[in-house]
Amino acid sequence: MTAAPGPPPTTVSAWQPSVPGLSEVFHARFTDHAYPAHTHDTWALMILDDGSVDFALDRRRHGATGTGKVVLLPPGVSHDGRTVTATGFRKRVLYLDTTVLPERLTGSAVDGPVLHDALLRHRIHQLHTALGDAGTAADAGSEGRPRAGGGCGDAAFEAASRLAFIRERLYLHLAPPDRLDALGPRTPGREANRLAAELRELLDSRIPAGISLQEAATVLHAHPTHLIRCFKQTYGLPPHAYLTGRRIDRARRLLLDGHRPAEVAPAVGFHDQAHLHRHFTRHVGTTPGRYVAARGHGSS
Description:
Layout: E1 11-15, E2 22-30, E3 34-38, E4 43-57, E5 60-65, E6 70-73, E7 79-83, E8 89-96, H1 106-111, E9 114-115, H2 118-131, H3 154-174, H4 180-183, H5 192-205, H6 213-220, H7 224-235, H8 239-256, H9 261-268, H10 273-284, H11 288-293
Antiparallel strand pairs: 1-2, 2-8, 3-7, 4-5, 4-6, 4-7, 4-8, 6-9
Helix pairs in contact: 2-3, 3-8, 5-7, 5-8, 8-9, 8-10, 9-10
């Protein structure tokens, strides 16, 4: 007689991305676990991928089930957590420091830690995807942690961009109504084309080295999310995607000039050959090695 399958095993992965404002990324599946009451010095921004979780925040109990909600736990406030069903839950957490959300917003978060916001949930998922999957060996460091988001490359620019839009969305939930006009998103106006062109020029001048979103915003005297919106409205794609495409263009030329993929990757601004391989295949439809092998045989 075949034994009934047991509950899914507990799995945990955690890493520190090189993205300002993010102190830790934490992915876990728990089937039978209870956190004791504790506090963090960061904000904990959690989404569930399946299952249910029950938790107390400041001695009031709350619950979240399924993939439709976002849980935000503020710094310095006692909370616990526990599984609800025999199959447990699977979660992804971003730990945000107080440069992303100031502690003065703690009271609003305590009053309503479970946010029903599908767009916010989607943006958090996109950021986790940009930061990488700890199980993806091709993009992992020596200890299995992903390197996506490090430095000032396209991955870092994308992660910082997505974090900026998450911050903007969280402010809409937490900030007092009289401050929303100043903090809420702006629709690009007549300045959009000018700002977009200036950002494109800046990106073109920094293709191998890259530039951080905050530096670009400082140089151009624009709010980060407004800058991204202006660029996308003008050129039809976000700045990080534009930067990746420009790096692929340079990589193609260098490969056709006879340079090896291992040399080309750092020369155009990718972390390593695996990083080049992933983006090159997605953009060109073939690997850098096969692209080089096809030289002179009618390949574009």
